[in-house]
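Recap from last week: sequence in, structure out.
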Amino acid sequence: MQISQEQYNKLPERLQKHFNHGNFHCTLKPIALMEYLIKMVTPKGGIVLDPFMGSGSTGCACVKNGFDFIGIELDADYCKIAEARINAFKKEPEQLMI
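Predicted structure tokens:
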């Protein structure tokens, strides 16, 4: 998945070298997979909890499908990445799908 220049610029400098304008989180999940899993187990109007949010794939899937989302992440740098991805996904979901 490619991230926008704006998202890349928001990354802490120590992470920019690892991203090279792409998302290379060590356990990155395809948004389509997360959509499938969310739809399978979450009732309409439900809230999805992701206690290990990472770079926010589950949050992006929730935005696309109209679910509320609570994400928890220990690493503040990944919180920034997830926030940037989810906010960007709200604006242009089709261009950000992986």
